[in-house]
Every structure is written in C-alpha cells, then in structure tokens.
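Postdoc handover notes: sequence design on the structure in folder B. Input tokens:
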C-alpha cells in the first residue's frame, strides 16, 4: 500500500466535511460527549464506526484481540472507567464477530507465545460452556456459538466491575452484547438478559456502593 494515499484521502475527507459544515472541526475540538462505549475486536474487517454508521464524537472505542474484558488489563479497564465514570456513557457494548481469528486460534493445540495468556481467557469461556459447545457437531456453528458465548462472558466481566455495577444502580447504564457477521455485514443484537446475568453473579461479585 502506498501510504501517500492515506494523506490524500485525509485531504479529501476534510474537504467533504467542511463543505457540509464549515465549523465541523472547530466544533469537534470543543470536546466529546459520546453515548456509547464500544469494545470490539481489532480485526481489520470489523470497523467500529463504519458498521454502526456513527460519526466522530459519537462512540468511545476500545479494540483488542477477540474483544476481551480482562480484569487485570489496565488498558481496557482504564477505557471502561473513563467512559463510564467520566464521560458517563449510557451504553457499553461488547461486539464480537463471526470468523474471529482470535477465537479460532484460542482453540488450537499450539503454543502461541505471548498470545497464550490472552487467548486462554477464551478457553475458559469454552470450559464454562463445554457441554453446550461440545453438543454442536458442525465446526463452524460451534465456533459461531463460541463467539457469542465469549461476548456474553465479556459482558459478565463488565458486570463484575465497580464502575459498571455503580452506574447500572444509580443511573441506568445499559450493557449490550452484539455480534457482527462479516459474511453478511449484519450487526446482530444477542439480546442478552443483562439483568439475569447481573443477578447471577452478585452473590459473589457485589462490590457495594
Ligand atoms: Co476477531
């Protein structure tokens, strides 16, 4: 790829924005009040804002391999705390995607070096849901379901944090699990019962007020 193309694209993008609204960048520079925190996969085919049709300023974005929410990952936890406690987003979304290389790699009997501890969290998801997953004969269908269950477990990981528990309790923050289907372009809401998931973990994970 000739990277000069990127800068030419940028010049065209600026011109397009200014044509519609001469104060566009001036307004952007004043600050952000996004309503959504989106946690998605780093996969180059899953472009956060574009697939949601959102503009700069509308979504706070965090992406990592296989859209993981890991309690000791300072990166995702900083993003989460800043978005929920300071930007006061109303929605936190974990968006997985079918054909996720990270999810597939996690289930291979292979030493992947530094990726081992990261991807082991997906093996843990498989272990928790082993009986359901092992009952699915078709390999692709099984991976698709693992992608969905991984999204669900990352939503549970969100619910284990003080920031999310507090915001749900005091201002009605909503948590959502979505999947992007690369093959059709469709964004699918898994319609997870967050209330039920929260109730299921509070006996052990309640962090109080
Ligand atoms: Co992926």
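Designed sequence:
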């Amino acid at each position: 790829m000739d990277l000069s193309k990127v800068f030419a694209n940028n010049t065209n993008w600026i011109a397009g924005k200014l044509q519609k609204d001469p104060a566009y960048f001036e307004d952007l520079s004043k600050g952000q009040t996004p309503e959504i925190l989106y946690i998605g996969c780093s996969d180059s085919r899953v472009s956060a804002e574009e697939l949601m049709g959102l503009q700069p300023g509308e979504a706070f974005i965090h992406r990592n391999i296989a859209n993981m929410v890991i309690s000791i990952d300072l990166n995702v936890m900083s993003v989460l705390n800043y978005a929920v406690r300071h930007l006061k987003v109303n929605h936190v979304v974990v968006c997985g995607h079918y054909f996720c290389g990270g999810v597939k790699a996690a289930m291979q009997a292979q030493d992947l070096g530094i990726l081992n501890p990261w991807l082991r969290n997906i093996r843990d998801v498989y272990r928790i849901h082993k009986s359901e997953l092992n009952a699915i004969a078709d390999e692709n269908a099984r991976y698709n379901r693992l992608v969905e269950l991984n999204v669900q477990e990352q939503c549970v990981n969100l619910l284990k944090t003080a920031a999310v528990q507090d915001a749900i309790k005091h201002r009605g923050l909503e948590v959502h699990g979505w999947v992007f289907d690369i093959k059709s372009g469709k964004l699918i809401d898994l319609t997870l019962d967050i209330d039920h998931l929260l109730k299921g973990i509070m006996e052990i994970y309640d962090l109080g007020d």
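Context for whoever picks this up: The chain has a mean pLDDT of 96. Don't rerun without checking with the PI first.
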